[in-house]
Specification:
The chain has 9 helices and 19 strands. It is of the alpha/beta class. A 10-stranded mixed β-sheet has the order 2-1-5-7-9-11-13-15-17-19, with helices on one face. Strands 3-4-6-8-10-12-14-16-18 form a 9-stranded mixed β-sheet.
Length: 437
């Protein structure tokens, strides 16, 4: 039989060349990076014939690879952070990144709140910090090509340890401010110890008109009886191709709530890989996406119940205008030993125009026999009866539509405990609706 040679696209060839040029300069274990890139290179960029990427064909979408961003100067970092807008009204401990690099000068390490410890990832990789052993808490996430690319090229990030109850939110602020297209690969590890609690904010911003290519990974280990509130906002520029991954391992009797809110990027794919690794664990993963123009927004989720009496709730709301495309792929996995599982997953899409489209693929993979699991997906337009009711009471049609859209998305946002963060998200929804009208 003749040998089969996989033809590489120009983007794949550029990635190979980029890796060869930086592999000796990046800190940390060169062998692990090489192994991750070899796994990626063997299969190449995922395409529509790969089931997990059926609706988001990265081989077709990624035509050119942007150069990886250099470390910004102190003046450039200060200017970029000064112009950042996300959650500016929320009092929080800011952990800032500019062009994919941690801005150490912006954090006073001597005045951190009690219970917070931060280690720059670049230093940890260079020195072989003991926390590095906690990276990749969800082993099967390493099979994902987006995650493999991040492992290959990750140049900077932080590791955060939370011990005790931290009253002030921790804000991971990512800003890409380069004038021309750049690629970034950041990795953040958050370790929340037993009985600890924290609110984690994560925002991503960049300017319109520039084809930036961020690939960011946040990994979380939530200890037994911990409480983690995670709020993520994608406010990237209108030409950005944004890839992101959340990998979480959740301990016994812990509670983790996470929401991803999307208003930005030309193409975005947010992946969530979670494993419930202790009994009586509670996990909530929500999404609220607002897409317009020709935006493409992909939310992909895999949750594995790996212990008894665990509960998970997944609710994704997508509003689509113009010719935008939404994607939801969700899977709940229940192995035979995870009896008494309670898992419920729902995706709902609201189409505001005839040109928009939504792709839903919810799945259950159940091997246990004493469970309560359900999934569902809906796709429809605004209720004309409700619109008539509001308009009959004097509201213009656009205002009536805005009220109904806010109510639709509000179900996914209302669980956010921090009032100022919740109000900021409501303001994001209102801003999107105002721009639409």
């Amino acid at each position: 039989m003749a040998d089969v040679t996989l033809m590489k696209t120009p983007a794949e060839t550029a990635l190979v060349q980029a890796f060869e040029s930086v592999r000796t300069t990046l800190p940390g274990d060169a062998e692990s990076r090489a192994q991750a890139f070899e796994q990626f290179s063997t299969r190449g960029l995922p395409h529509r014939r790969v089931e997990e990427f059926k609706y988001t064909d990265l081989r077709a979408l990624l035509r050119e690879v942007a150069p990886f961003a250099a470390v910004p100067s102190a003046e450039e970092a200060k200017a970029a952070l000064r112009d950042a807008k996300a959650f500016t009204g929320v009092s929080a401990l800011e952990v800032p990144f500019v062009n994919g690099h941690f801005v150490r000068e912006a954090v006073d390490f001597h005045a951190l709140p009690d219970g917070i410890e931060i280690v720059p990832l670049r230093e940890a990789l260079a020195n072989g910090h003991e926390w590095l052993a906690k990276l990749s808490p969800v082993p099967w996430a390493s099979d994902n090509p987006v995650y493999q690319l991040n492992t290959s090229f990750m140049a900077d990030g932080v590791m955060v340890r939370v011990a005790g109850s931290v009253g002030m939110p921790v804000h991971l602020r990512f800003v890409t401010a380069a004038g021309s297209a750049v690629a970034t690969a950041t990795r953040v590890l958050v370790v929340v110890e037993d009985d600890a609690s924290v609110t984690l904010l994560e925002t991503h911003e960049s300017a319109d008109g520039v084809n930036h290519q961020p690939n960011d990974v946040v990994e979380m280990i939530a200890g037994d009886r911990s409480n983690v509130q995670h709020v993520r906002l994608n406010a990237e520029g209108d030409k950005t191709l944004a890839l992101s991954t959340l990998a979480a391992k959740v301990g016994a009797e812990a509670m983790v709530n996470s929401i991803n809110v999307v208003v930005g990027a030309s193409t975005s794919r947010h992946q969530v890989y979670a494993i419930l690794d202790g009994e009586n664990t509670h996990l909530r993963v929500n999404g609220a996406s607002m897409l317009k123009g020709s935006q493409h927004g992909d939310s992909t989720l895999v949750v594995e119940h790996n212990a008894l009496h665990c509960e998970s709730r997944e609710l994704f709301k997508t509003v689509i205008d113009n010719e935008a495309t939404g994607v939801f792929q969700g899977k709940i996995i229940v192995p035979h030993h995870a009896q008494k599982t309670d898992g419920r997953m729902m995706s709902a899409a609201l189409l505001l125009s005839e040109g928009g489209s939504m792709n839903n693929k919810p799945e259950l993979e159940i091997f246990a026999d004493d469970v309560q699991c359900a999934h569902g997906a809906t796709c429809g337009q605004l209720d004309e009866d409700l619109l008539f009711y509001l308009m009959a009471r004097g509201l213009p049609r656009k205002d009536a539509e805005s009220l109904l859209v806010q109510a639709f998305l509000g179900e996914a946002i209302e669980f956010v405990e921090n009032e100022s963060v919740r109000e900021a998200l409501v303001g994001t929804v209102e801003g999107w609706l105002k721009a639409r009208s």
